[in-house]
User: Which sequence fits this backbone?
């Protein structure tokens, strides 16, 4: 892709992902225009005041629940990254209608507007919680994945193409456990659900670069899954708060002991390349010639956080907690 010719819009653009995406796009790819679409005027003001004020930037107030506003926002846009969502598991459980309105109906509005405005590429962000979901957030994201994959059939012969990017927990994102541990360690006690719990983990920058890579190589219909490391929550807790007492509070409703990014059933339609897995759609419109050079996966392969081959070391955990600390320690030594 020649990014300098693209008009890019990111929904939920004032969130943690959106800001990092805008930062990297402005610094390295220089799109013709970059539109930040979100519903919070204060966050847009704060974002502009913090230095996001490039001449190519446009701030567009709107909600993905509003189809008319989306039609206006997507006029002339060539690339959409759909990051807007309600993401807090307890909030989605307590407000199910709101979660459905934003995560499912909002996704439909993005699809309809993108097709009507002849946007070329649309990538929706998903989560490991969409695989065999046990909470409403994961269920809404599973529905969104299904919609964005099948949206390619709705687009028909025009060049509009839809895909998804699915990944795990993001360091520094809203709701990350690291700030919770850092606050709790001031009291000498931290809370942990279960000592066996594992999670996939990646940085915001890794997530953004993965999304950009997916946009560049998508044919339309794929679900892209990055190869990322796992961590044990007990290891993270001990790295963040060494010497603190750990109170085990049990797994809460809607939580899993381990997360899965690629299930055994999905493996039948998935292939592997060096940095990621690609789940191909099992629909008649999919062209069999796509991803022919990718490697097949073994039968019953399952990409789970507890059986992952990549694990974060203690040094890498420290780098997540306090960036630069491990480097400074080596220099001092």
Assistant:
């Amino acid at each position: 892709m020649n990014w300098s010719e693209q008009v890019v819009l990111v929904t939920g653009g004032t969130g943690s992902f959106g800001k990092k995406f805008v930062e990297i796009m402005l610094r390295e790819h220089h799109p013709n225009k970059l539109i930040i679409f979100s519903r919070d005027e204060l966050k847009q003001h704060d974002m502009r005041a913090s230095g996001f004020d490039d001449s190519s930037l446009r701030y567009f107030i709107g909600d993905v629940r509003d189809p008319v506003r989306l039609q206006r926002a997507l006029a002339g846009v060539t690339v959409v990254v759909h990051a807007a969502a309600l993401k807090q598991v307890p909030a989605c459980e307590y407000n199910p209608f709101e979660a459905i309105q934003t995560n499912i109906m909002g996704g439909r509005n993005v699809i309809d507007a993108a097709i009507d405005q002849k946007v070329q590429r649309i990538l929706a962000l998903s989560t490991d919680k969409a695989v065999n979901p046990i909470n409403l957030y994961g269920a809404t994201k599973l529905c969104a994945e299904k919609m964005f994959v099948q949206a390619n059939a709705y687009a028909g012969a025009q060049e509009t193409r839809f895909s998804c990017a699915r990944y795990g927990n993001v360091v520094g994102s809203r709701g990350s456990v690291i700030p919770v541990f850092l606050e709790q360690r001031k009291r000498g006690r931290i809370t942990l659900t279960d000592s066996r719990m594992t999670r996939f983990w990646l940085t915001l920058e890794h997530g953004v670069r993965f999304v950009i890579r997916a946009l560049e190589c998508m044919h339309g219909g794929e679900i892209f899954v990055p190869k990322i490391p796992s961590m044990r929550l007990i290891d993270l807790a001990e790295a963040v708060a060494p010497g603190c007492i750990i109170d085990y509070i049990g797994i809460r409703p809607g939580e899993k002991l381990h997360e899965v990014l690629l299930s055994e059933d999905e493996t039948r339609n998935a292939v592997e390349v060096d940095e990621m897995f690609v789940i191909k759609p099992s629909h008649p419109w999919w062209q069999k010639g796509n991803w022919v050079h990718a490697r097949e996966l073994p039968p019953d392969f399952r990409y789970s956080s507890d059986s992952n081959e990549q694990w974060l070391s203690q040094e890498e955990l420290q780098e997540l907690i306090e960036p630069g600390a491990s480097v400074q320690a080596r220099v001092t030594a």
About this structure: The first strand starts at residue 7 and ends at 11. The two ends are 45 Å apart (CA to CA). Residues 325-333 have pLDDT under 50 and may be disordered.
